[in-house]
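FYI - complex with adenosine-5'-diphosphate, inputs then prediction.
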Amino acid sequence: MTSRLLFLGPPGAGKGTQAQQLAAARGLLHLSTGDLLRAEVAAGTALGLEAEAVMARGELVSDSLVLAIVRSRLEQQAAVGAGGWLLDGFPRNVAQADALKTLLDDLGQQIELVVLMELDDGVLLQRLLSRGRTDDNEAVIRHRLEVYREQTAPLIRYYREAGLLQAVEADGTVEEIAGRITALLD
Ligand code: ADP
């Protein structure tokens, strides 16, 4: 059973919704760096204070900070001998992907599948504008899409060349998209 995977795709593609459902259905750890960072902001931790302004601008939080969060979760899970995980919103640039590879090598684990969720910019913008999160105003959204294209989209090629990438069309109902993703899994 496919149990170590990550979701890639632009903001607004629906990664969070699909990741949450799939992780629950398969008993995987759902690790969303966006959710974890927002929780730190809400709790007012030092880490949250560092991340808050960066997130509000739609920029990427520093690699070291995000990596520390991911590392501790994956190590914790490996220590209790639990199985799978689903990464959502991480990695977001090539440096993070390289660091993830090193971390997984240390843990003796491997990514089994990368699911790319594809959607037109016009649809993304409409979805994000209707979501109403504090970093969801039009200027910030446009900037997040730009950051995605410049920093995250290179991961499509990175994982395609590693033979791990499968793409799904992210337009349709939540159930339709879930069906397309499930069809890719063992
Ligand atoms: P979206 O998918 O809509 O962009 P996320 O919840 O994944 O939303 O991320 C929200 C914000 O959190 C990002 O714009 C960024 O500032 C920060 N963030 C999340 N994950 C990462 C990451 N892996 N590296 C750097 N910053 C991140």
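The chain has one domain: 4-185. The pocket of adenosine-5'-diphosphate is lined by residues 11-12, 33-34, 37, 54-55, 58-61, 66, 89-90, 92, 96, 144 (CB under 6 Å).
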